[in-house]
From TrEMBL, chain A:
It holds the Pfam family PMT_2. The chain crosses the membrane at residues 29-48, 81-98, 110-127, 133-151, 158-175, 187-213, 225-245, 286-308, 315-333, 339-357, 378-398. The keyword Transferase applies. It comes from Cryobacterium cheniae. GO terms for cellular component: plasma membrane. It comes from the Bacteria. It is a multi-pass membrane protein. This is Phospholipid carrier-dependent glycosyltransferase. GO terms for biological process: lipopolysaccharide biosynthetic process. Residues 89-237 form the Glycosyltransferase RgtA/B/C/D-like domain. It is found in: Cell membrane. InterPro entries: LipidA_mod_glycosyltrf_83, RgtA/B/C-like.
Length: 523, 426
């Protein structure tokens, strides 16, 4: 007893703040702070932004893996499946904590939290690896966490968000200061997983190679480049291997194929027009990104151009440049969430460019500045001023406040509840993909009784299941995106059913419609 | 139920194959892992003062005079000042004994002859007899068909001083890479072994030594009773026993200081040589000295080091078999795809070998042509089969207790020298 009482009377208590502060390195502390702030922001009003059809698609595809299928309908190589395989592997976490209020698409958004937080941490680590000071590295992270673009698109269930940590990890590994072969080979694997999560991640390939090669020459460079390329290619090869084993590598009658899927994504899909064509889908999308976060998109692009001046940051220019290349010169299909994969690189560009300016200020003011430590505050004040001037104009704060408080899904939930309560489970229902899984898993459990909107036209199996065509459909849920989808995708079966239906119940932008066929209207 | 048991079995085999292939990849590329590794695997700067003296044993058996003369000349031309050479011969080989005595007469101050009179003739016994004649601090071994670099001993002396070593393993390199498809692979194998793998083993504290260009402090060697007179891989065995004693074993590599040798002169003799090595490793494994490594981790590492090579030889054959099995048995897609996983580290190693061949050429100022690279890549599967045959052959001999010494014949390409035969173990 006495020995306990007399032990080190002057020592700090075991878990005092002072003791912890000395134990934890500044970078570790910064990473812990990033994790805390990013998660708090992420979880605030997470289920507020409207559920998208794509989110429903990936949720449904992830959960169909439980039955051993890659998708609830015929998997047709629209995307490599690695993205939703990851979702399926992680869904137990929100389920463990009972998150998502019984809505699977909402629960799946909590899985994305892991990716969001990982992205924030990796932005910091990458900035530190290119010797950006802590202050500016944190500035880059703040731009990522608080950008209205990441708070809307970045928190939704998109494959781009799933690909991002792998992409960023690849950059982090490639920039290994020890120039270690294993980390360069691992970077290849990580990059391949990114590409297999979302094919568009491949645009960062050149930037990765620049980051790898454009450094002071070292003896093992040939090994590193070879290791990066080979391991990357070998991991990538598992996608065509899967197609080959399923007998679906090349196009052929009566089956889907990887060849057809890729051709659809890169050529057959309706283009978004050129960016300089006023009113084209592409120019409007670019404008919507600029409105969403002009500071990040415009400021980041300028910062990326600045990064060209130093060898250490040159890859950032290539990354941002090759990211925007398809936007600026292409005319193919450009999805709205494409920007998601660009945001972290714009943030890194901001951090790196600020740090370059700090160094320039230091050099210029070597004799004039009374204290060298003033350089950081000066640049920081400059960047903050710039943001203050910009933000009221572009509504950063206002947009953030809206994103972090408004609930855009109350109608979705009401519609879902009504359907669950009132529609018999053997009635055939056509529903937007956003709601499909949450309905199907409540008693229908049959993808040809509860049918995702586009499948009635696009999956040949529909005609086998419902030889009567549109008359096989009894209910249609008309969500806010349904009419534009019918038009864009040219869905005739679904359109006819919609035309021959009457509204039974309305919740805001959601209409629940009953299809009137001759049989149902008749005598 | 039977089906699912088969699935589990295939997955387990695949997991082992992945582990094996990753381990091989790690050991083979260890020296290139990072620039730090490169610098630690080289020789330190040469020190001005020669602190140690050397007794070099040159084991000979049915050797031709010009072979012995050439090897001896390179040992006597060393820049190091305190060197004596012991030519080790057997009393059943009068011709070689006569040559040895003649050579010793030409250099009475620095060359002596040790005649082994053991009833059983083999290399370790011959070495033990020669060890009794050694008088200097450090004992070194040079096989009769090898060509040492002139400044080698001066460098080795520096390593003993710098690193406070008990044992120093220098590198041996086969050089006649353009003779045949397998000689190219064989040369690269030596390059990888001495440039990379041995360093990884040294780092782990458990190292099978080589039999040529190896240097041990004499007191230490005498105190452990010299070499095991009944072991086929007496060099590997010595390494194991010294590792167990936690002696400081340093491996050093520099392209200028390698001892040059040549590949076996035919495919059959390459297989015989491989079988002998595999069998030697198995014998050392069966002796069980490795079990006396101090910690559990080190014992696992030792077990892995002694057995892994045979597994790897078999892996080259097992990977296609497991893939075929999964394909023809119509296993579920994820399991079939999993059987392809070992190919990632395997193919990664194949492509990195291209870089290694490039560096091999640069190190030794050889011109490596496009067809050499092509031969390297195309020869890989066949070489795997060859290694697998040797491993299986060794396993067969091991279980039938056949420990005779298969001779390796050399065609003398490195010096235009004739056959070299080592002693029969029986």
């Amino acid at each position: 007893m006495s020995s306990v009482l007399t032990r080190e009377p002057d020592a700090l208590p075991r878990w005092s703040v002072g003791r912890l502060a000395r134990l934890v390195r500044p970078d570790t502390a910064a990473v812990i702070a990033i994790v805390l702030v990013a998660s708090t922001v992420f979880f605030t009003n997470l289920t507020g932004p409207a559920f998208q059809d794509d989110e429903g698609t990936y949720t449904a595809q992830a959960l169909s893996l439980d039955d051993g299928d890659l998708a609830p309908y015929t998997y047709w190589y629209d995307h490599p499946p690695v993205g939703w395989i990851q979702l399926a592997m992680l869904i137990w976490i929100p389920r463990l904590f009972g998150l998502g209020d019984g809505i699977d698409i909402a629960a799946m958004r909590y899985v994305i939290a892991l990716y969001f937080v990982a992205n924030a941490v990796l932005i910091y680590l990458i900035a530190r690896r290119i010797t950006v000071t802590m202050t500016f590295a944190l500035l880059g992270v703040a731009a990522f966490v608080f950008s209205p673009l990441s708070l809307s698109l970045g928190r939704q269930i998109f494959l781009d968000t799933i690909a991002l940590p792998w992409l960023l990890l690849a950059f982090y590994l490639v920039l290994s200061p020890r120039m270690a072969l294993w980390s360069h080979a691992a970077a290849g694997a990580s990059f391949a997983i990114a590409v297999l999560s979302k094919l568009t991640a491949a645009v960062m390939g050149p930037a990765l190679l620049v980051a790898l090669i454009d450094r002071r020459a070292w003896q093992g460079r040939m090994f590193s480049v070879m290791g990066f390329l080979t391991v990357g290619a070998l991991v990538l090869a598992f996608y065509p291997l899967m197609a080959l084993l399923r007998g679906e590598l090349v196009s052929g009658d009566g089956h889907v194929s990887l060849q057809d899927g890729l051709l659809y994504q890169f050529t057959a899909r309706e283009g978004s027009g050129y960016v300089w064509e006023a009113g084209s889908a592409r120019s409007e999308l670019l404008l919507s990104w600029a409105v969403g976060d002009g500071f990040l998109v415009v400021g980041g692009a300028i910062a990326a151009a600045l990064c060209l001046v130093s060898r250490r940051t040159r890859w950032v220019t290539v990354a941002v440049g090759s990211f925007f290349m398809p936007v600026m010169v292409g005319e193919g299909y450009l999805p709205s969430m494409y920007i998601v994969a660009g945001i972290p690189f714009l943030c890194i560009a901001l951090a790196a460019a600020s740090d370059l300016i700090r160094r320039a200020v230091l050099r210029l003011g070597r004799d004039r500045l009374p204290n060298q430590a003033l350089a950081t505050p000066i640049v920081l004040v400059g960047v903050t001023l710039l943001m203050l001037v910009q933000t009221p104009v572009l509504g950063w704060v206002a947009r953030d406040r809206e994103l972090l408080s408004s609930d855009q899904n109350s109608d979705f939930r009401d519609t879902l509840e009504w359907m669950r309560a009132n529609v018999p489970r053997d009635d055939v229902v056509l529903t937007p993909y956003s709601m499909w899984h949450d309905l199907d898993s409540r008693g229908w459990d049959d993808s040809w009784t509860m049918i995702a909107l586009e499948k009635a036209d696009l999956d040949p199996a529909y005609k086998v299941q419902h030889p009567t065509g549109w008359e096989g459909i009894e209910w249609i849920i008309e969500g806010p995106t349904v009419r534009s989808n019918l038009e864009v995708l040219g869905l005739t079966t679904a359109s006819t059913a919609l035309q021959n239906s009457e509204i039974v119940r309305t919740f805001g932008a959601w209409n629940i419609r009953r299809v009137q066929t001759d049989a149902s209207v008749g005598p | 139920m039977l089906i699912s048991a088969a699935h589990v079995a295939v997955l387990l085999i695949t997991a082992c194959l992945v582990l094996l292939a990753c381990s091989t990849l790690f050991l083979s590329t260890y020296a290139w892992w990072s620039p730090d590794h490169r610098s630690t695997t080289g020789y330190p700067d040469i020190l001005p003062a020669n602190e140690h003296s050397f007794s070099l044993i040159m084991p000979c058996r049915t050797e031709r005079e010009e072979v012995m003369r050439a090897t001896l000349a390179r040992l006597l031309q060393q820049t190091h000042s305190r060197v004596e050479v012991i030519i080790s011969v057997g009393d059943d080989d009068p011709d070689t004994v006569a040559i040895a005595h003649a050579l010793a007469k030409e250099h009475p101050d620095s060359v002596r002859v040790s005649v082994d009179s053991n009833a059983v003739k083999n290399k370790p016994r011959q070495l033990n007899t020669a060890l009794k004649l050694c008088r200097n601090d450090i004992v070194g071994i040079f096989d009769a068909e090898s060509i040492a670099a002139p400044t080698l001993l001066a460098h080795i002396d520096s390593v003993f001083q710098h690193r406070n070593a008990d044992v120093v393993q220098g590198a041996v390199q086969l050089v006649n890479f353009s003779d045949s498809w397998y000689s190219l692979r064989n040369c690269l194998e030596y390059f990888i072994w001495f440039r990379s793998r041995l360093h990884a083993h040294a780092k782990s504290g458990f190292i099978p030594l080589g039999g040529n260009t190896v240097f041990v402090k004499r007191d230490l060697l005498v105190s452990v009773g010299g070499w095991d007179g009944d072991c086929l891989a007496e060099d590997c065995d010595l390494g194991v026993r010294l590792s167990v004693l936690k002696r400081r074993i340093v491996v050093a590599y520099s392209p200028d200081l390698v001892t040059r040798e040549e590949t076996p002169d035919s495919l059959a003799s390459l297989i015989r040589q491989r079988t002998r090595w595999s069998l030697g490793f198995m014998q050392v494994y069966a002796k069980g000295d490795w079990r006396r490594m101090p910690t559990g981790i080190q014992r696992v590492n030792a077990w892995w080091t002694l057995t892994q090579q045979h597994f790897m030889a078999l892996a080259g054959v097992l990977i296609p078999i497991s893939i075929m099995l999964a394909l023809f048995a119509k296993f579920p897609l994820p399991i079939t795809m999993a059987t392809f996983l070992p190919l990632i580290p395997t193919f990664a190693l194949f492509t990195l070998e291209i870089c290694m061949l490039h560096e091999f050429g640069k190190d030794h100022s050889f011109r490596i042509r496009a067809r050499d690279y092509l031969r390297l890549v195309l020869g890989a599967p066949a070489y795997q089969v060859l290694l697998a045959i040797s491993a299986i052959r060794a396993l067969g001999k091991f279980y039938t207790g056949d420990f005779r010494w298969d001779k390796t014949a050399h065609n003398g390409a490195h010096l235009n020298l004739a056959e070299v035969r080592l002693a029969d173990a029986r």
